[in-house]
């Protein structure tokens, strides 16, 4: 009920006989209530004088105005990576995630019960599969998002801008993140989500543990010898050789692992690489991101079947290596485990630190 309707109900409704006794008041309490009534209010007649009415209205409005700053002071304001202000009046209890990596972070912070919507690609952890699906990364169902009545929607720049702008116009609490590329970006992402969801302590603990793991993984990495030249490719994504450019977080992992990414000079995250360029780069190792060992075997067979690739060092030596696509494709806490797998693959002679 709006404020004016409440005031009208309280002050302007007349009773046919005597003003009703307030609920819960009796005996001396009722006597005290009567004696403390505002000037101009006659309980016997049930009528409210003009002076009394305005006195009560003034008091009520004063209380409302006094309370307003207190309510506003409780609103937590944030600015997302698109520059939009997001105000949260409480810790969100109804959260929609528009990206798999954001979903994984929410679960890692213990927000299973608060998640009410995800994309069809949000398949980790297993509990994510039981959540309401609001579409894909780009074909989001705006009507379903509205119907779920979220208190916070988390998105990333990969979501269509027109969809995000529509959510902004609908005054939904949407917070959009940039795509990160370093471990520091990942740690900052986790901490920011922790702030948005009132899970600062859990986020700080998770980041501390991930940093410890990274430090352990990097113990013993070569510091002085030149790294091998590697080519990383994502198999099964249509025609062409899909690879990571210098702006991708996978390039960051390769650099930290002390190897040379053959495609690091290229701008962008993911791009198609030509066969001619691959022959020219002549990598020593080919890292293949696949969903399964069967896919890896097919990819390796394909590389070996190309006559033009015979002189590439990696092909001639059979230096093909399988990397699990799922965890390498998510900018989430599992990226640290992916890094561990990468280092173990590149340096089988090293004893990589335990988790």
Structure in words:
The chain has 355 residues and is α/β, with parallel strands linked by helices. The chain folds into 3 domains: 3-73, no CATH class; 77-217, 3-Layer(aba) Sandwich (Rossmann fold), CATH 3.40.50.1980; 222-346, Rossmann fold. It is built from 14 helices and 12 strands. The strands form 3 sheets. Strands 7, 8, 9, 10, 11 and 12 form a 6-stranded mixed β-sheet that branches. The chain has a 4-stranded parallel β-sheet with strand order 4-3-5-6, with helices on both faces. Strands 1-2 form a two-stranded antiparallel sheet. The longest helix has 24 residues, at 50-73. The protein is globular and about 65 Å long. The relative contact order is 0.09. Mean pLDDT is 83; it is low at 1-48 and 65-73.
Total separate domains: 3
Average pLDDT reading: 83
Order of helices and strands: HHHEEEHEHEHEHHEEHEEHEHHEHH
Give the helix proportion (percent range).
Answer: 40-55%
Number of helices: 14
Percent strand equals: 5-15%
Residue stretches low in confidence (pLDDT < 50, at least 5 long) are 1-48, 65-73
Distance between the termini: 55 Å
Predict the CATH topology of the largest domain: Rossmann fold
Question: Would you state the CATH class of the largest domain?
Answer: Alpha Beta
Global Rg: 31 Å
Profile the largest sheet.
6 strands, mixed
Query: Which homologous superfamily in CATH is the superfamily of the largest domain?
Result: Nitrogenase molybdenum iron protein domain
């Amino acid at each position: 009920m709006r404020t004016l309707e409440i005031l009208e109900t309280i002050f302007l409704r007349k009773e046919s006989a005597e003003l009703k006794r307030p609920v819960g008041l009796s005996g001396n309490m009722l006597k005290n209530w009567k004696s403390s009534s505002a000037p101009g209010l006659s309980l016997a007649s049930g009528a409210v004088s003009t002076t009394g009415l305005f006195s009560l209205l003034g008091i009520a409005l004063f209380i409302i105005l006094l309370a307003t700053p207190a309510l506003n002071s409780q609103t937590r304001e944030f600015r997302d990576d698109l520059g939009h202000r997001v105000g949260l009046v409480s810790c969100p209890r109804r959260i929609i995630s528009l990206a798999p990596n954001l979903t994984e972070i929410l679960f890692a912070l213990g927000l299973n019960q608060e998640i009410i919507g995800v994309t069809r690609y949000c398949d980790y952890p297993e509990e994510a599969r039981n959540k309401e699906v609001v579409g894909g990364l780009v074909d989001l169902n705006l009507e379903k998002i509205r119907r779920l009545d979220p208190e916070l929607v988390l998105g990333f720049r990969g979501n269509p801008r027109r969809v995000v702008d529509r959510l902004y116009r609908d005054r939904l609490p949407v917070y959009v993140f940039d795509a990160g590329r370093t471990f520091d970006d990942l740690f900052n992402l986790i901490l920011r989500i922790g702030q948005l969801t009132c899970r600062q302590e859990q986020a700080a603990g998770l980041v501390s543990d991930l940093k410890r793991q990274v430090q352990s993984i990097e113990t013993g990495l070569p510091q002085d010898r030149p790294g091998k030249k590697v080519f990383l490719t994502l198999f099964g994504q249509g025609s062409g050789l899909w690879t990571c450019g210098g702006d991708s977080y996978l390039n960051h992992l390769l650099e930290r692992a002390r190897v040379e990414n053959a495609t690091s000079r290229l701008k962008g995250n993911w791009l198609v690489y030509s066969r001619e360029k691959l022959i020219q780069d002549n990598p020593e190792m080919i890292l293949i991101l696949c969903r399964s060992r069967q896919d890896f075997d097919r990819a390796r067979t394909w590389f070996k079947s190309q006559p033009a690739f015979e002189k590439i060092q990696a092909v001639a030596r059979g230096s093909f290596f399988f990397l699990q696509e799922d965890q390498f494709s998510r900018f989430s806490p599992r990226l640290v485990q992916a890094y561990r797998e990468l280092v173990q693959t590149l340096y089988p002679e090293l004893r990589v630190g335990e988790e």
